[in-house]
Amino acid sequence: MSEKKALIVYGGWDGHEPDLIAKRFKNILENEGVSVTLSQDLEAYSDLDFLKSLHLIVPIWTGGKLSGELCTNVSKAIASGVGMAGNHGGMCDAFRDNTEWQFITGGNWISHPGGLIDYKVNIIKNSSSPIVEGIEDFDVFSEQYYLHVDPAIEILATTRFPLHTYYHSSNKAIDMPVIWTKKWGHGRVFYSSLGHTDIVFEDSPASQELMRRGMLWAIEGKDIALERGLDPAVFESDAKMY
Fold this sequence. Notes:
The protein is α/β, with parallel strands linked by helices. Helices cover 30% and strands 30% of the residues. The protein has a domain at 5-109 and 181-235: Rossmann fold (3-Layer(aba) Sandwich), CATH 3.40.50.
């Protein structure tokens, strides 16, 4: 097996405490034997060969703008087998005008009615994913994310809407995805909407454990791609996508 390497790119809106989240995720990965590079510059995505050498990309960047060229590099790296894993606004409220980014990640933030509230995370009971194995439903105090999601995702946990009265309350009750996985080419993508600020991971240990497992699951895809000699060229197209 090759040395496992991860890149954490953090910044954007300070309200999501990207510096603290980056430090936490770095510590988690290093405790698992992963070598971690930190960057506060989106130009970290400019070197495609470097990105393809990684096992994992962790985006922690709420808002901001990402050029088509940089997004294409991330897309190609993941398609080759590199994993992506992230949380909350740092992954699915990033680069709002970049639809390719949303296609990669599997969803984008729309609202969090009520702001910071108490809500329950419901684990999908019949899931075969090792990410949620043995984890029970749990409560969190955070922003309850309402997202527009890719129907192709594998949902691992949900939360019930509505809990707070707003215009959406006139619709039927729904179970909004909180945690999911998906594939992008040969790469694995993991997302958790939990973690508005760093304290959420302190108050809700299950939130951190799910992130740990999700990052490790995403990492595994790289070795599988290498072992099987999987070629991302089978997914490539020269048609205009966006």
